Amino acid sequence: MKYYLVLFVVALLSIQIAVAQSRPYNVVFDLTTKDSVSQQSVIRWINLISKNNADAKLEVVMYGQGLDLVTKGKSIVADDVTKLAQNKNVSFAVCDIAMKHQNVDKSQLLPGVTTVPDGIYEIITKQGEGWGYIKVTH
Amino acid sequence: MKYYLVLFVVALLSIQIAVAQSRPYNVVFDLTTKDSVSQQSVIRWINLISKNNADAKLEVVMYGQGLDLVTKGKSIVADDVTKLAQNKNVSFAVCDIAMKHQNVDKSQLLPGVTTVPDGIYEIITKQGEGWGYIKVTH
Amino acid sequence: MKYYLVLFVVALLSIQIAVAQSRPYNVVFDLTTKDSVSQQSVIRWINLISKNNADAKLEVVMYGQGLDLVTKGKSIVADDVTKLAQNKNVSFAVCDIAMKHQNVDKSQLLPGVTTVPDGIYEIITKQGEGWGYIKVTH
């Protein structure tokens, strides 16, 4: 009996500790603009955050006009994207629905860029898992 | 005694299951721009999401310059708004404070459009209830 | 033994009550634009919210091009910022990293404006603490 009680206390405490502990640096960036300042900003932020926080998990979700960031011949930060995409804690995820709507093929994406079935659902799922949310604009 | 213990275990598990289960497709869209691309984008997204996810709950909250989306004579997607507003899982909610500030009367809003006392509080309340949040810009 | 059981019930109930109670009016505003309409909007919203909700906690986090709001000689709402910054429930927090990147010194900030080590981490920390999140654009 005592064993179960201890188990309950541990379970309760673990919930409270999970809530109280310092927040992990997990961020989903929402990019829907082709604006060059926004492209450069999100790359600068990701470079800085991953440099200063080795465990930070960062994902850029692109839909609407945001696809340019990772499209060959359109991205103004192609080298940075290609390099950052090799970092296992950084991902660039393009919305499949937006790709179809805009007739963009996977072969047009920079190396290492991934796709997700639905960009908006990807973002709200991350939010639901406790990731921070940043809309990229300027 | 044993009964209470079982009750506690069930209660604890139910909390964990609630956290772990797949996220419902509930989204509050924050619209503060009169930009035509943003108007068209949010309507396209809502059409697609509600078509692909019958249970998705979607709400567009408008304040600042976002009121044009649902204002007669200003909306460039008036037919879509009127049609979507009939869907019980889709709502277009205009901030009362913004309406007063901009001298917009309820009679100027498209059919089916609703109002909320405070647009920002509406948004953060939805966020607090676990809805996803998407800022509409481009 | 009974004492512990009561304790568990209270703990469980307190978690559920915390989730169910009405959401406090806590908002972190994310400002990355120097746009004048956005500067005026966020100030108007803060004035209204703090007037209508005495307990509302409001914070504007500035990085990217958002620093103009609180920079001497650049802000178009300098008087409002200076006045609002005296309210203990309102804060204007500039990202240290952005200040260094843009060669902005603390002496250039309006009176009462504070700084945070990392603007994005400040925002996602507030989100993690249950604050609402509003991206300021138009």
From TrEMBL, chains A, B, C:
SUPFAM superfamilies attached to this UniProt entry: DsrEFH-like
Domain of life assignment: Bacteria
Pfam families recorded: DsrE
Coiled-coil features, chain-numbered ranges: none
InterPro entries: DsrEFH-like, Sulphur_relay_DsrE/F-like
UniProt xrefs under PANTHER family: BLR3518 PROTEIN (PTHR37691)
Name of the protein this chain belongs to: DsrE family protein
